[in-house]
Amino acid sequence: MSLEAVRKSNEAPRRSRRRRHGRRRRASRVGTFGSLLPSFLTTGNLAAGFFAIVKASTGDPLTASYAIFIAAIFDILDGRAARMTGSESRFGAEYDSIADTVSFGVAPAVIAFHSGGLGELNWAGWVMAFVYTACASLRLARFNVTAGRYLDRFDGLPTPAAAGMVVSTVWFGGFLAANGLDLPPAPRLTAVALVLLAVLMVSPIPYRSFKEVNVRGSYSATVLMVIITLILIVEPGLNFFLIGLAYVLSGPIGWWWRRRTGGLLETRPEAGTDSSKVDSSPAGSEKDGKGAGESEEVER
Length: 300
Known about the structure:
The protein is mostly helical. The chain has one domain (27-285). The protein contains 9 helices and 4 strands; from the N terminus they run H-H-H-H-E-H-H-E-H-H-E-E-H. The protein has a two-stranded antiparallel ribbon. Strands 3-4 form a two-stranded antiparallel ribbon. Helix 1 (3-57) packs parallel to helix 3 and helix 7 (219-234) crosses helix 8. It starts with a helix and ends in a 15-residue tail after the last helix.
């Protein structure tokens, strides 16, 4: 065998090893980016919440409300990114909960305090705003350690939905002003509404999670989503408020209706009831069982 043939036969395995090493390095870089992406998105959620606080404190609640909306988008994306990249972790869940506390617990209370004129109530104003923040934090902590009682239901009003109600109220005020109804701030009404949202967040009243809705596999669900999107785009200042109000009221109304008619909700298997049906009344809620830890609406 010639020297040239020997040299080529020795170089072939080395080239193959270099290609394998190159592929491993590229896969490692992709894996590192995939594991960091959810945390980057959660940081975006936190930054949007902080920006909302700054803008609300400087007298610009409208821009602050837009920032909360952006924070909600980041909150949706970070959980999905974690599941897609297989990088779910306890750290990610805790970090997400902290970001949610700022964006959906502190920022909405600051927006309501400044835009609703709660400063006119003196110490009672900031206490009412703090009640909202405290209840939002308690709800997030509760949902970090329990999966809830019922399938496809949240125990209590979700914190993003409560924050969305505050945001949509700001937009609704702009809608009224644009149509010649520029109403002055109503501090007492704002305080009562804020406390009611706070109570609903920590209450045991079930709220639909809509996780059972399969948009990809259902033609009717897809059509419904398109219709709702078009309605929101046509007049967001009014329609976001109406849809948000409908969702907030759906929990107490559904709870009252089940109490009246004896309606049942399906419990989670880990609640220790073998997926049996139990009433959603207070008597049924005594059977609450602690399941595996579940973070906020967008799970990590």
